[in-house]
Amino acid sequence: MSSLNESGNKASPQGSAKNDPSHEQLAPDDASWQKKVHVFAQWLLRKINAHDAASWTAGNASGYKTGHKAGKKLGHLEGLEAGRKQGHQEGHREGYDEGHNKGHHDGFECGHEVGFEAGKLVLELNPGVRSTDATPGVDINLFEDFDFPISSELEQRIRDDIRAKLPDYQQPTDPQWEMILSRHPSTYIVAGAGSGKSTTMVLRLLVLRYYLNVPEDLITVVTFTRDSRFDFISKVIKVFTLWQIPMDEKKGKTFVRTFHSRVLDFFAWSPLLKGSKAFEFLSKDATAEDEEPENVLDVRLNVRQLDLMNRCYQNLFENNEKFRNLIIELVRHATSIGEPLNPEDPEHAKRIAVIKRCSRRDRETCESVEALWRKAGHWPMPGVTADLVPIKLNGQTFYANGYAEDLKALVVLGVDRNEPDTVTVENGKTNLSLSMNMRRLFFRLFYSQRVLYFTNYDEAMCSLETLRGEVSEIPKFGYQVDGDIKPVPIMQAFHSAASFLENLGLDVAKAIKGMNFTKRDMDGKFFEALGLFWPAFEDFLANQSPKVFTFNKMFAMYSEHAEENFSKLPEGVLKSQMVTLVDEFQDCGANTISWLRGVLTELRLRRLEFRSPQGPIYPSLMAVGDDWQSIYGWRGSSPKFFQQFKNYFPSPSTLPILMQQNFRSQQMVIDAAESIVKHTRSIENKHGLAGHPDMIGLNVPVQLWRRDDQRLVDLVNDHYEAGDKVMVLSRSRSTLDEVSKKLSDTLQRARRERQADNIRMMTYHGSKGLEADAVFLVGDCEQLSSSNWRNQAYTLAGLVMNGEARAYDFAQGEEVMRLAYVAITRAKVNCYWFLDPPKPASKGFPRASAKIDKEQAFFSDYRR
Fold first, then answer.
1. What is the mean predicted confidence (pLDDT) over 667-681?
2. pLDDT at res. 184
3. CB within 8 A of 853, min separation 6: which ones?
4. Beta strands in 449-512 (DSSP E)
5. Would you say 548 and 278 are in contact if contact means Cβ atoms under 8 Å apart?
């Protein structure tokens, strides 16, 4: 083959087979008939533009060999037979014909196939109609394709320094080293309970700051709560001091942030937004300096926040007729004793069976609750008779507390939600609240006339005036949204529902428009009113001086969809997140995920980089979390963003790391907790292993007991006497109050001995991140309700994971298992779980205790 064809250039397509040198190397020396066959085949292939030089060569060679072989064989056989009949000449002719046909066919087929694959370029350059679409694809990665410049020599230096400066018990494990030395632009670490993730994050920070010379103003470490923020800063100070890096709390606060404090920086640069306040950071005292609250996950409103909401509420109620009519409908609903119940429903049979006993104590019940209202100064009410009104319910005598003639309605008083649950009737045999619940049930079963039911001192008169059309102030009333455990003040209900929707990344008004409610479902009216109130409230806050925004609004203004807002940001605001580390990533909601994606997108679009002496560093993300510890779904977070990290944060190179050693708990505590949480959808191949030297080899089962407060008190005392740190946990604050009274002597003693921190009373949620030698769990982790509107919101937000129908309810069922895991893994050595018998009215909702396998060695069951 000539050098021209060896270099890949094509011979001229106009050249004849005769003067084309490319075939001469393949043809036999004698000018046989096979040569003619292939000259023809070559000419035909060129004619249809089916090959270039390389493809033709391959096809030509294949065709020649196949045709020659077949022709020779067939020619010989056919010629031999014909020679006997017609002689050598006829045999030669038939052999030639067969060989010619076979050679042409095979040469064309093979040449075309090989030529098509090897010569696609030529085919694309010679189409009938040329394509004009030359649009390149879109790079969806949020990160550049780069490696952190940690050479093998630098890695060894880092390892040697850490080995020399840190004590043996703080030496990193292999997975921790992977995290500390990650060279990838995107890294996510599944860090189980007690895995030492915070200490490892500090060492990663050390590598960035000391060994790669990245300045603090290009680094952001994100935590969720103020307490965890300052705890992390203290750890940074300790480690950086060993390397003689100047660091104090003031400097630490500049780069160790919460999501909420960080997003405020995005408003500080703008003349129009400078000085803006965060609604959630407003202190209850207007004269005090606003600052970050201890826990922004606490959605309760303070006096100042409520005042702003009520002022907007007042304005809207007075000036928007549609909103006013909706509120009045909600007041009517809130003051009703409840939807009528069917007495034929078998579910109520046991309750109806005790109606006589309830009737006998009903007068005492009414007089007891009236006494509470009188003491509070809210009884009697204007326009309501103060005499007991007897009525018949299923043939038994019960009483209403009064009658409102103008409204043609009985008035029944309930126990104010702020009263302690200590009042009893029947000589202490029955709690007043239980007696009230039973009589309310009988009214709903057997009374069809109008009943006004008041359960709040401050709201009763206002509700009466609203019903009478004599409104002197805005209606204040409680409302219980579907799925909530109890009614809350209407402004709190509005704020809670709107915050949930926005945490899912939804616009409140648009989300409500996408929901559906049945005609009788009062939540439809509630959300219609919320859809009017929330946009008005956001406008009201923005018109304050200085401007006020909710954090959800702030995150939405700088979400991944707000490219115009991002484009106006000064470079200095963005550069602070050149290197971003996020702790407790499983607690992120869609709003913070969208904000983080927006930040990373803008950083890449601007092609920002830092030139370290070791090499260039581009924006990066390190996310640390544990989907088994995702317990804030009720406020809108989801483990989905962590479980599907690569989908939400696409990168040319992502490093996943499993940190499974547990440096807190002994193995049986770990195994007991995992036996419950393993039933949830989670990241695979996770299993904690006891790693603390003091815990390895310990095997103390988790003890299961029936609820017995005296036994609990005795065990707490035993551990306190032994010098152990103790935590008493429950899901319910009311349960904690009950237990605190039983433990009052021990708690007082601890305070006297200046050991108050050795016995802590906390909710399961509040205990996250903490630990104790002995942990006492009081009560189950159980799903308490379902929620139609939250299920719809989950669908609208795209949080359905496996096509399940009631996705939020399903997620909450899994969350109770994760909550039990968090609670149990607070224990280092001893864990005691005091459980009530399962309630028959649990409606089949998931509960963590149902997953206990009593046959396993890591549980000891002392229940009788």
1. 96
2. 98
3. 675, 859
4. 451-454, 478-479, 488-489
5. yes
Phi, psi of 657 (to 5 degrees): -135, 135
Domains of the chain are 3-125 (no CATH), 152-276+551-659 (3.40.50.300), 336-476 (no CATH), 667-861 (3.40.50.300)
Two tokens, residue 8: 């890949």
Reduced to 3 states (helix: H, G, I; strand: E, B; else coil), residue 460 is: helix
Rounded-to-integer distance, Cα 24 and Cα 638, Å: 72
Can you tell me the distance from the alpha carbon of 458 to that of 451, in angstroms, rounded to the nearest whole number?
19
Cα-based distances in Å from 283 to 296, 301, 307, 496 = 12, 10, 12, 19
Task: Read off the pLDDT of residues 509-543 as tens digits, 9 standing for 90 and up.
Answer: 999 999 999 998 999 999 999 999 999 999 999 99
Phi, psi of 861 (to 5 degrees): -100, 110
**Sheet strands (E) in 670-751:** 689-690, 702-706, 726-730
Q: Which two tokens stand for residue 453?
A: 């039911």
Strands 654-659 and 759-763, how do they pair? unpaired
Average pLDDT, the chain: 86
Instruction: Give me the residues paired with residue 615 across strands.
Output: 612
Task: Report pLDDT for 5.
Answer: 34
Q: Residue 27: what pLDDT?
A: 37
For residue 570, say if its preceding peptide bond is cis, omega within 30 degrees of 0: no
Q: In the numeric block, which tokens belong to residue 250?
A: 């003031």
DSSP-assigned letters across all residues of 809-833: HHHHHHHHHHHHHHHHTTEEEEEEE
Nearest to 779 by CA among 706, 716, 671: 706
Residue 623 pairs with which residues in a beta bridge?
188, 582
Other C-beta atoms closer than 10 Å to the C-beta of 284 total 12
* SS3 category, 858: coil
Going by pLDDT thresholds of 50, 70 and 90, the confidence category of residue 474 is: confident
Distance CA 542, CA 546 (A): 8
Q: Distances in Å between the alpha carbon of 762 and those of 278, 315, 370?
A: 28, 40, 34
For residue 40, what pLDDT is reported? 59
Residue 233 burial by Cβ neighbours in a 10 Å radius (0-12, 13-18, 19+): buried
Rounded distance, CA 387 to CA 367, Å? 10
Q: Is the pLDDT of residue 15 over 50?
A: no
- pTM beyond 0.85: the answer is no
H-helix segments, 27-52: 33-47
From residue 79, alpha-carbon distances to 70, 75, 91, 518 in Å are: 13, 5, 3, 92
Question: What confidence category does residue 470 fall into, taking pLDDT thresholds of 50, 70 and 90?
Answer: confident
d(CA 111, CA 668): 70
> What is the SS3 assignment for 776?
strand
Round to whole Å and give the CA distance between 605 and 437.
61
